[in-house]
């Protein structure tokens, strides 16, 4: 869209074609202002360069690109996270997984975050619980670069490893394992809608039935958890019963699901089973 030099900040806040929140975010980003700055400088007119920059940002959003990718950051668990096209955008739903993990993490506990992406889960835990030893895995080097930068920016001590699930941690034990793995089934119509169109497909879908990554985690976790320690996994809005069945089939204890703020069963977990006797 065309935005003319000389337009005032106040007029643009009311006149841009996006919602009020998105208008404010893009104005702040384009002009380098805080929310308070938009108010105190509402009568200031944009220069040609500022108008051109803002027009480009609005055009990107109008074409569907997520706000988080446009401005390069997203807030999660009270912290700012850098995001790029290499990682999923952290979502409020996932804060439930962090809260459940913090409730179950013992003092000086060892926690493993599988498929860390932007590092949101691992960094939020490490920032809240600096006594914990947090390890985070991802198969994508590009995602790990983003996650490391987020740990540094938020003063969180996290060990990052490139790993296809449990490959890089053979023989290691943890007090808690958490994961928000790819869980959208191949061909799901949601992959072609909204923000998901722009996010890395490998972090969204397992290119199968939506449960293959969850199966791998359920199967492999007991080798890395003492009996009775928790495995917690985020999953799709309609997968809770299937994930509970996976855990039950492997002998996990206290298997249950927890609902997010929208009332959707979003996280499922259980306590690691006793080691099976040799046949």
UniProtKB/TrEMBL annotation:
**What is an example of a GO molecular function annotated in this UniProt entry?**
nucleic acid binding
Xref: SUPFAM superfamilies: S-adenosyl-L-methionine-dependent methyltransferases
**Binding positions (substrate):** 180-183
Task: Name the CDD domains for this protein.
Answer: AdoMet_MTases
Q: Where is the Release factor glutamine methyltransferase N-terminal domain?
A: 14-72
Binding sites annotated in the UniProt record for S-adenosyl-L-methionine: 115-119, 138, 165, 180
EC code(s) of this entry: 2.1.1.297
Query: For the Methyltransferase small domain, which residue ranges apply?
Result: 94-189
Q: Which reaction does it catalyse?
A: L-glutaminyl-[peptide chain release factor] + S-adenosyl-L-methionine = N(5)-methyl-L-glutaminyl-[peptide chain release factor] + S-adenosyl-L-homocysteine + H(+)
Q: Name one GO biological process term.
A: methylation
Q: What does this protein do?
A: Methylates the class 1 translation termination release factors RF1/PrfA and RF2/PrfB on the glutamine residue of the universally conserved GGQ motif.
Name this protein carries in UniProt: Release factor glutamine methyltransferase
Say which species the protein is native to.
Answer: Massilia cavernae
């Amino acid at each position: 869209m065309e935005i003319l030099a000389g337009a005032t900040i106040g007029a643009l806040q009311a006149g841009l074609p996006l919602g009020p929140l998105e208008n404010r975010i893009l104005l702040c980003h384009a002009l380098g202002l805080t929310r308070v700055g938009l108010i105190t400088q509402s009568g200031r007119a944009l220069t040609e360069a500022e108008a051109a920059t803002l027009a480009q940002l609005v055009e990107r959003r109008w074409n569907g690109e997520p706000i988080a990718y446009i401005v390069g950051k997203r807030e999660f668990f009270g912290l700012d996270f850098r995001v790029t096209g290499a990682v999923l955008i952290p979502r409020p739903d996932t804060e439930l997984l962090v809260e459940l993990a913090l409730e179950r993490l013992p003092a000086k506990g060892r926690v493993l975050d599988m498929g860390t992406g932007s590092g949101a889960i691992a960094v939020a835990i490490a920032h809240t619980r600096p006594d914990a030893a947090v390890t985070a895995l991802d198969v994508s080097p590009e995602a790990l670069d983003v996650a490391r930068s987020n740990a540094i920016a938020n003063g969180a001590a996290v060990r990052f490893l490139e790993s296809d699930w449990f490959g890089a941690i053979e023989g290691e034990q943890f007090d808690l394992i958490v994961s928000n793995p790819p869980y959208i089934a191949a061909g799901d119509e949601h992959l072609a809608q909204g923000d998901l169109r722009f996010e890395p497909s490998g972090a969204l879908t397992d290119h199968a039935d939506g449960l293959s990554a969850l199966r791998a985690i359920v199967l492999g976790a007991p080798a890395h958890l003492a009996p009775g320690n928790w495995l917690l996994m985020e999953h799709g809005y309609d997968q809770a019963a299937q994930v509970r069945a996976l855990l039950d089939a492997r002998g996990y204890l206290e298997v249950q699901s927890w609902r997010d703020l929208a009332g959707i069963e979003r996280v499922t977990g259980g306590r690691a089973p006793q080691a099976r006797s040799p046949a």
